[in-house]
Amino acid sequence: MRHSLPRRPPVLPIVIGVVLAVVAGVGAVRAVWVSSTSSNAAPSGRGEERADRSRPRGDLRCDGVPLSAPRELRGIWITTVENIDWPSRPGLPDEQIKSEYLGWLDLAGKRNLNAVFVHVRPSGDALWPSKFAPWSEWITGVRGKAPGFDLMRWMIDETHARGLEFHAWFNPYRGSQPAPSGAGSDINALAPDHPLRKHPEWAVVYPAAGTSGSRLHFNPGIPAAREFVEDSMLEAVKNYDIDGVHFDDFFYQYPVGKQEYPDGAAYALYGNGKSRADWRRDNVNKLVQEMHDKIRKLKPWVKFGISPFGIWRNDRTDPSGSPTRGLQSYDEIYADTRLWVQREWLDYIVPQLYWNIGFDVADYAKLLPWWAAVVKDTDVQLWIGQADYRVGQAGAWSDAGELDRQLALNRKYPQVTGSVHFSAKSMRSDALGSVSKYAASFYSTPALPPIMAQLPADIPAPPRVSLSGTSLTWKGKGTNSAVYRVQGDKANLLAVRRGGDGSLTVPDAAGTYCVTALDRSWNESTPAR
């Protein structure tokens, strides 16, 4: 996949509402076309520090001074489809697959991140031994062929060992990738045990065979297909210690020209008198609500979130919409993202705000407060999808400070409790030094994930702590442990470790240190020293 803007039309001064949705992955460019580059309108100053609604307790102190730890989600998407991020190519030896993944965890540690979002179901396949789906071709190079170890379990164990959350990223309805790298529209080119070969009646080809980008989809309008897709994802929730279930914005395919999505037969059977558009939206709503409810019943501590296209509706169409003029996810891909927040079917939402500040068709500085208002007074947390992949492109993105300004603007809105960056390879390449710039400004110290009040809370007892020279050790019952160091009038977060027991070489034997225990939902015990 190439993350590049489409060519501009040669004559029309503005073409609005057109989006390029290519290949798979959160970072596919959903770029609104314009004929001239909009100027940047950078916010002035950094603004006040975000109000910390995610730390409900203010009584946590170490040696008489308050604990000080940023509470924000900091993540990267690690894309497997087409080997965009990892593995670097299919068919690598198992040890190289492992080594490359550990390299991404090293990057997360270097940048003080606390979560990774790993693509584990790109196209009706799986990165775990599944009774619902074949092994992904992006790992071994052969559709349906497994590596020599339980990849998912190993990834989760290694991720947790670094104190990071593991969010399993699924594309629910995709059945194949376009040819020639994927099976395209040819069911017979899928792995022999692919579910669409067993149930061709569930398959939809869109765009049409012979059209660039043609691929297979599970039909969202067939209840049995929807239930199967849900079960295939819940299998991973049941069998693995994941921290989150994560979707991006691929439910109904982005429109291609004037081609109609070929679901007429399903609509005739299941439409129940609704308009085609309302029926499609209802199909997606059912998937979201049912996944929320089933995850809660199965493992109530597992978070559920979606990263949608950044525009719900434009205010010219709907007065409740955003001050934008781009593609509307409600109307074009039948994703009623605002409703999902209002009904609290999600724990977090990560709108892909992949446009620059001042962009006239979809201005980051105008979309951000719109989304903040949507989540206000709900239990749904707002994390922002940041477009690291666009840095270095022409226009506003040739400025290394664009993302730095966007993160500064995020801090002005207390509803924003995190960011996820697309994608891992863009963070590693650090185009124009942009990552180093924003990391120095905003990610210079470790951070704890924000607390979600709707998740189970079981605050552990404080751990038992001992310090011998520069060797700090502790024993406790937490899912994670946090180490703090007293510096002046506060105790700053020094490190996060997985598990209740741990050790750390501290920078100064004469310093004062405290350790807290944290539960699965990152609720924190009183400190011990």
Tell me roughly what share of residues is in helical segments: 10-25%
**Biggest sheet, open or closed, and with what strands and sense?**
8 strands, parallel, barrel
The overall strand count is 18
Q: Name the overall outline.
A: globular
Mean pLDDT: 91
Count of alpha/pi helices: 13
User: Strand fraction band?
Assistant: 15-25%
- Tell me the radius of gyration: 23 Å
CA distance, first residue to last residue: 50 Å
Helix/sheet category: alpha/beta
- Low-pLDDT segments: 1-56
Strand order within the widest beta sheet: 3-4-5-8-9-10-11-12
Q: Would you give an account of this structure?
A:
This protein is 24% helix and 17% strand. With 529 residues, it is an alpha/beta fold. The protein has an eight-stranded parallel beta barrel, surrounded by six helices. Strands 1-2-16-15-18 form a five-stranded mixed β-sheet, with no helix packed on it. It has a three-stranded antiparallel β-sheet with strand order 13-14-17, with no helix packed on it. Helix 5 (223-239) runs parallel beside helix 7. The relative contact order is 0.14. Residues 72-394 form the Glycosyl hydrolase-like domain. It comes from Dactylosporangium cerinum.
Short key terms for the protein model shown above:
529 residues, alpha/beta, 8-stranded parallel beta barrel, 5-stranded mixed beta sheet, 13 helices, 18 strands, 17% strand, globular, disordered N terminus, membrane
